[in-house]
Amino acid sequence: MIFRFRFLSLATCLVAFPVAASDALSFAPATFDSSTPVCVDPYRYVNAEWLRTTEMPADRPIWGPRYQVVERNRDMQRELAERAAAQAAKGDANTETALVGNFFASGMNEARVDAAGFAPLQAELARIEGLRTSADVAAFIADSSAQGLDLVFEYYVWARGDDPDRNVVFVEQGGRGMDDRARYLDDDASSKGLRAAYLTHLAKLLELSGLRADQAAQQAKDAFRLEQALARASFSFVELRDLDHIFAVRPTAEVARIAPHLDWPRLLAAHGHATASEVSMAQPAFFAELERRLTATPIAHWRAYLRARLLDTTAPYLAKPFAEQHFAFHGKTVRGVPAMPARPKQVIDALNNNSALGMAMSRLFVDAYLPADAKPRALAMVADLRAAFRARIERLDWMGDATRRAALDKLDRMGGKIGYPDRWPDLRALVLDPDDYAGNVRAAWRFAQQRADARLGVPVDRGEWRIGLPHEINARYDPQTNEIYFPAPMLLPPAFDPKLDPALNYGALGIIIGHELTHGFDDQGAQFDGAGRVRSWWTDEDKRNFDARAAKVIERYGKFEIGPGKPVDGALTVGENIADIGGLAIAYDALQRRLQDAPVAAIDGLTQQQRFFLRYASIWRNKIRPEFADLLLKTDPHSPQEFRANAPLAAIPEFAQAFSCKRGDAMAAPAARAIGIW
């Protein structure tokens, strides 16, 4: 089971930060490009030399400071996993060590994995072959879902929108092997080519599972038609920014009327929720289409679809031909990555894709690498940024007093999970076999699903680390608990380094903190109050003012292109863009407050203000493969990184002041300034 609640996009924020000072990607004014005026293009002024000389690793779709630190983090995890495997083999391991060690050992035993072929799926494939009625199909879907294998739609337990202290069952659209809905439907050459490649991919997986080539090709077509029908009935990523398309609690009897052939009693009972009286179904058109397909689509097509979905979902954990075919499509074709990652990377990634195993690794990581003084330092910087944000809200000229009081109350109530949870989850019931990789993956999925299912009927645990992992390179905001999340690596160099001057720290960890604080007040976050409820706390006039400013952000970013005819989707990225602009402004103000108390002289001929802004421009440097850039343009709520650098810098007047930009310079254009909100 992987992490759920992915449609509330503000809950996940891809952040970047510079790597260690000794690295070639560090802040190095001597490498800045004097031929590019900083007031025209600060991104290229700072990063031109890096862009010219850096080679992208063959196993990466994108490369830059964040991803280099991800690689370093993965190497640290590999060391922990190897050590854990040795301890587990000796029988000298605690729960977390045994889980990490046994999982890693099983994944690294490639000979045993290859010898098993697709035997780990034989029982399920045999059951699929025996499906004869829509009731059989519904029963298989229900039983697979309870095992953490959501082949057709997502099923999980999470907090209600109107009452974030109460859990409810959520069901959401899914059932596709390609995440981008548009690739199933658009008529452009790229989408048509990808559909053809996907059909070939499914056919190869089916052939590997024992079908003749002609059978595999036909079943791939049958499976794809079902996926395409479900994609057509699904919301787009932009539509899923509407909270009404995320939260919609209905009586169980109502969802059963929408899709009666899904056999809701069996589905709910399989998850231990037989008495559930309510279900959140916010995408009813998807389930209505699923109902039509259950009653009208030939069962043979359903068998083909379920075979293909099962194989594509589990292929990375099977014998080499399956894993290589999975990478050939999802890695090489979709993302443009030429080389498959080394085996240890694959196994570490598989571990981190599971919430239970990931928490086991997090505990080992925190114990091994996080010093005692890291958390207090981070809390102090959070307090600095919070004070700066409070001051900005207090002086907003477009917001009335009633809304301002509510905004300040929300900010004051905003909490934080910093570094690691106060209470680690109990994982003792999960036991893994060092000789059964595919079995371990499935056991971990099942365990994580059961832990999630157990939330129903008990109050939301606000002490739980609910989203992401405490050892990942990321920061997050949870609107339903009104908390920011800063995992352990975010408290360490290079995100924060006490040896560096304030400008470089506020231009790294500071802007990340500011970004997450702002998410509480972006287009989605602004719809949650300080208690985490979906509730309007705005006057009508202030909401109109906010919406008008957000519309300018959408319009501004929608004019950026990564290539001819490839514009940024301003509506998809608006939340992250608001957070980028707000985070930069808040971090700058916090730095100014710090410098008032403890001034710092110019370094390398640059003032603290200049170093802060150039640091910000440096953290977004990246190289990306064209295929992956096209995918992100349609699916990622973050703007391409060049625009994450330049657009926020142009949006705040302090950048132009710091570099004496003149009228007519791109970074001093009135249109660029018109998009600030917070």
Descriptive terms for the model:
four-stranded mixed sheet; 9 strands; disordered N terminus; single chain; 678 residues; three-stranded mixed sheet; 27 helices; Neutral endopeptidase, domain 2; mainly alpha; 2 domains; Collagenase (Catalytic Domain)
Give an account of the 3D structure.
- By secondary structure, this protein is mainly alpha-helical.
- The protein has two domains: 9-76 and 355-415 and 433-673, 3-Layer(aba) Sandwich (Collagenase (Catalytic Domain)), CATH 3.40.390; 118-317, Neutral endopeptidase , domain2 (Neutral endopeptidase, domain 2), CATH 1.10.1380.
- It has 27 helices and nine strands.
- The chain has helices spanning 42-53, 65-89, 95-108, 110-116, 122-129, 134-146, 182-185, 189-208, 213-232, 252-258, 264-270, 284-296, 299-314, 320-335, 343-352, 355-369, 374-394, 401-413, 437-453, 502-519, 540-557, 570-597, 608-619, 626-635, 641-651, 653-658, 670-673; strands at residues 62-63, 153-159, 167-173, 249-251, 278-281, 415-419, 476-478, 483-487, 623-624.
- The chain has a four-stranded mixed β-sheet. Strands 6-8-7 form a three-stranded mixed β-sheet, covered by helices on one side.
- α22 (570-597) runs antiparallel to α23.
- The longest helix has 28 residues, at 570-597.
